[in-house]
Amino acid sequence: MNETNYTEVSEFVFLGLSASRPTQHFFLAFATVFYITIALGNSLVVFAVVCDPHLHSPMYFLLGNLSFIDLCLSTLTVPKMISDLYSGHSTISFQGCVFQIFVLHVLGGSEMVLLVSMAWDRYVAICKPLHYLTIMSPRMCILLLSSAWVIGLLHSVVQLAFVIHLTFCGPNEIDSFYCDLPRFIKLACVDTYRMEFMVAANSGIISIGTFFLLIISYIVILFTVWKHSSCSLSKALSTLSAHITVVVLFFGPCIFVYMWPFPTLAVDKFLAILDFMITPILNPAIYTLRNKDMKLAMKRLSNRLLRFRKMI
């Protein structure tokens, strides 16, 4: 297109979850309650892991970072949605949309790799207990965390490299409550079929690859436990079932959105709610608050806060 034949898009309009005002009020209350829960729960986990010396171990180091990423993922999208539902004005600048997509894929890719690191940690703890502290040294933990962020960053940069030079001349409506990359691409003024395929392949490979790595690692752990002691299998299965639940709920929407050939708007929006409002609650609820060490750490933390308040 010649530059004189179009007006470049400077902002996008979110169509949100529903056009019905009563339904919007329901989602406003729902999102507010869930975001407060996510913020408090994950912040408490991060604070406990940082401040309590009893939690300075590889497992809790990884759990604390998972809570931090979950908190960032929700904060990236949910407060904006709450503000839009409250004001009825649902727009985002072009630069803001690109930034949201970039950070979303950095965090998403990092969390996928971090979940694999957590599965590796559990494998070493269960299958090689005598060498656990040697293998999962502080250096190894930093290396696993750094790898997660580097891979997430590279994944996001590759995604944006496909779309950053696209021309947008209208329409500018995104039928969602956040900047979703597949829908963002569809708004371009050029044929994007090849671009959509590359983006889907990139996200699909990292999502499916890490998902199957996790499933295989859990199968190996269960097989090893069963081989050594069939009595401990039920306990291991009970522990890992919670982890598998989080993995399926996190990876399921990612794989569906990018790999399913027949997208459905209602389903996509429901899966987005799962990703940004339901799954981030599961980390403090399943991974940590059911854990005895974490419960004791929470009590110690609350006692310290109470003593601090009395001193003031």
What is the topology?
Elements (H helix, E strand, L loop, with lengths): L10 E4 L6 H31 L6 H30 L3 E3 H34 L4 H4 L2 H26 L9 E2 L6 H6 L6 H36 L4 H27 L5 H24 L3 H20 L1
Parallel strand pairs: 1-3
Antiparallel strand pairs: 1-2
Helix pairs in contact: 1-2, 1-9, 1-10, 2-3, 2-9, 3-5, 3-7, 5-7, 7-8, 8-9
Report on this model:
The chain is mainly α and 312 residues long. The protein is built from 10 helices and 3 strands; from the N terminus they run E-H-H-E-H-H-H-E-H-H-H-H-H. The protein has helices at 21-51, 58-87, 94-127, 132-135, 138-163, 181-186, 193-228, 233-259, 265-288, 292-311, and strands at residues 11-14, 91-93, 173-174. A 3-stranded mixed sheet has the order 2-1-3. Helix 3 runs parallel beside helix 7 and helix 7 (193-228) packs antiparallel against helix 8 (233-259). The longest helix has 36 residues, at 193-228. The radius of gyration is 22 Å and the shape is globular. The model is unreliable at 1-6 (pLDDT under 50).
